[in-house]
Amino acid sequence: MKRKLNEHDVPEAVTETAEASQKAQRNFTDLGLDSRLLQAITREKFAAPTAVQAQAIPLALAGKDILARAKTGSGKTAAYVLPVLHSILKRKSESTFNKCTSALILVPTKELAGQVTKTIQAFTAFCAQDVRTENLTRKEDDKVQRARLLEAPDIVVATPGRANILINASVLKLDNLAYLVIDEADLVLSYGHGEDLENIAKSMPPGVQSFLMSATLRSEVDTLKSLFCREPVVLELDEEEKEDANLNQYVVKCAEDEKFLLIYAIFMLKLVKGKCIVFVADIDRCYRLKLFLEQFGVKSCVLNSELPVNSRIHVVEEFNRNVYDIIIASDENEVIGNEEKSRKRRKVTKDEKETETGEGAEKDEWEDEPQEESATNKKRKKTKADKEYGVSRGIDFKNVACVLNFDLPTTTKSYTHRVGRTARAGKAGMALSFVIPKHLYRKHKPASIASAANDEEVLAKITKSQEKKGQQVQPYNFDMKRLDGFRYRMGDALRSVTRIAIREARTRELRQELLKSEKLKRHFEENPEDLQHLRHDQESHAVRTQPHLKHVPEYLLPGGAKQVTQGEGGLSVGFNKLSENRIRSARMKNRMKNKKPGGRKADPLKTLSAKR
Asked: Which end of the chain is more exposed for a tag (fewer CB within 10 A), N or C?
């Protein structure tokens, strides 16, 4: 349903003429965009505008402020990027145009800033000389960044904190700003940017056209609407969201150690085909699970707020290019899911604002063990974590077949945004969640985590929330007895992943990524193709490897080898083992090639023939 707010903040229906024009616009050519943008759209293989694009672009070109709500993966980025680019190109064609920053795009996370910048670069492929874009979230020398801003780029992409710092330093000038975009608007305030946004609003000239894009319309969006918008047209795309039946949601109730048993069986028996995002609760769980899977030869990469922003962006890019299939991501900031708690915890003090550099804030580790600790241990268990990090929202993960909630999120909103990573653009997807019943909580302490204490209550809320959207969370009745043959291997591998091994793997990974991000940055700028050779799913080597665990013998397969490898669903298990010695067989073939029919070896000098 499409609505707009009148002067009394009462929702009103959009006029019939607007609805009729939106229905009539089925192609990008009907939207009246610049021909160079249409060329780029064709190059990106966009067949037709999505619902939010078809409705928002005409309104934006007409000069309306827009407050749009659409689900993740519905094309919200292009819905505001295309009209902004068209308007900038149109203004530049006028003889009276002066060089200035015309558009400011604010996003909650650095990953989303990088993604928006790449989208802009893709759409300006045929007019790159006419539109300059600057991403202020990149980690680079301040003097270099300030020099670029002095050249007045047309579009600036930044987090509110970084933009506010540069505005106060009189480096980022908004005197001639024409367009303001706040992407993932409901998350921006949750990241503690209230003061930043107020200062930005005061620095803006009157008459700026505003776009607020969000996956939900909550109280935070109302606050931003009052700050930046003038009678915005409200677009809610509930109908399209309810029609999406491509997502199958399942839940498995299991013991704490059986989480590891199930994920071992899923990846070793290839029960999930395609790319998978595994969500865990904190950074330590990332490395515990990564080290556990490495015991069986299953490669994966981690994604968390501790890694440098360049590495995080590169992880997502390589995942989208199918370089690797499994990402283990953490939601440790809790802003992504538990927004209510995060707003209480993420209050940013005045001193913190003054010293903020956009590089992160401190955060406690080992959140899964809330036992009392000494003051020295608390000091030791501090690490730099990027507060402007987010995985569940905004980031465009492409062709994700399965979202696996290894640790159940703490709220229904977090669950919705996690599973929104799959079943996008009309493709089918699956969400599988592991839930710990109360009677099994803390029964296996090495694999336990504090948030699992409320799994059953959270699951009930998630089920109720999904039913309102016309979706079902179905129980996946997996016969755990069929995996009894794997339990010994699972226990053996899990015991190898000690706390010391996790700490060593975590330190080693951070050291490697910092090296790639800092010392090689200049080289990669000059040789971008070399980035393709970087891999983020290398083995951590913090745990003693056991080669025999990488193969699944036939006697361990549930139901026999033929039933598993050739049964319904087309499952396949690779043993990577030949029946004979490969080197010996190759040598024998080479000997046979050099023999004559009579049994003697052929003399290459005598058999050489030449023609005049």
From this structure: C
